[in-house]
Design goal:
single chain; 2 domains; glutathione-dependent formaldehyde- activating enzyme (gfa); six-stranded mixed sheet; Metal Binding Protein, Guanine Nucleotide Exchange Factor, Chain A; 2 helices; five-stranded mixed sheet; about 300 residues; about 30% strand; mainly beta; globular
């Protein structure tokens, strides 16, 4: 029997496992994935139906229809993206030893790689035409403006592209219930690879921007926000929309800051992520190739 690869959400109420290798594994840079993960991209493993099983109750799993092809799932307690069923056709983007690809599969699962410590490295980057202006795609993996042609997946109508703001940088969740604006310049933005960020964002790493406590104003939907604080954490709290589970800004009165998931932004913030922190805790399937400064643990003291 093949050894199973196990995954979980941030709070641990939702757990799952799959056997064998995913038949495809993509870094997706589409605006919908940016929104739902609050990060530069989501990474998804595609798994045949007979490889996958839940290992916990699914009572806390909630669903959001993000397009005519995808119904995304997440944990209603902590907001982590969890596996959801694929829709339509999918085919491997990796060639086998004889040069062929897997047969078309209508029954498969999409599991967020960020909730797994180990996995093979992603096959390629997809929807790179939607890449955020504050993120640089690097490395030697193939890049596609939509799904890889050999995958058999049709394109998906995405969200509007990021624009330059007239005054304030705006942001919102995927469903649009929550809207906010950033009323001051960003102090900095960085990538965090700690396990809490990886499991909370369900992707390779968090991409967070920082302003003062009063630097974020919610325009609508503040009553739709939910918080989950990791019980043994001093500060770590995840804030998300109760409708679509998109990660949203957290106002931290104790430290006098607001932490903004960069993927939630609708406008170009005029800043790029500057470094990587907690790289000692990086997912085994991820590789840093952008040349930014790396800190094995937390950021250096100021």
């Amino acid at each position: 029997m093949n050894e199973e690869n196990t995954g979980r959400c941030l709070c641990g109420k939702v757990t799952w496992a799959f056997s064998g290798e995913p038949f495809a594994l993509y870094n997706c840079h589409c605006r919908m994935c940016q929104k739902i993960h609050g990060a530069a991209f989501g990474t998804y493993s595609f798994i045949h139906d007979n490889q996958f099983r839940w290992t916990s109750s699914t009572d806390t799993v909630t669903h959001y229809v993000s397009s005519n092809r995808l119904t995304r799932s997440s944990c209603s307690v902590c907001g982590s993206v969890v596996p959801f069923r694929g829709s339509g056709h999918a085919k491997s983007a990796r060639a086998s030893n004889d040069g062929s690809t897997d047969n078309t599969d209508n029954n498969y699962w999409c599991a967020p790689a960020g909730c797994h410590d180990t996995m093979r490295k992603p096959d390629c980057n997809i929807f790179v035409s939607d890449n955020a202006p504050w993120h640089k795609i690097s490395g030697n993996q193939p890049q596609h403006d939509a799904y890889p042609p050999e995958s058999g997946n049709p394109g998906v109508k995405g969200l509007p592209t990021v624009t330059r703001p007239d005054q304030f940088v705006r942001g919102s969740c995927l469903c649009g219930d929550v809207e906010f604006r950033v009323t001051e310049p960003f102090k900095l933005a960085r990538n965090c690879h700690c396990s809490r960020c990886r499991y909370g964002r369900s992707t390779a790493h968090a991409c967070n921007g920082f302003v003062s406590y009063d630097g974020v104003e919610f325009i609508s939907g503040e009553n739709k926000l939910r918080e989950f604080k990791v019980p043994d954490a001093q500060f770590f709290t995840q804030v998300f929309c109760t409708t679509c589970s998109s990660l949203m800004p957290r106002k931290d009165a104790g430290r006098g800051i607001s932490v903004i998931p960069m993927g939630s932004l609708d406008d170009d913030p005029g800043i790029q992520t500057s470094d990587h922190i907690f790289t000692n805790h990086m997912a085994g399937w991820h590789e840093i190739t952008d040349g930014l400064v790396q800190h094995p643990e937390g950021p250096p003291s100021v």
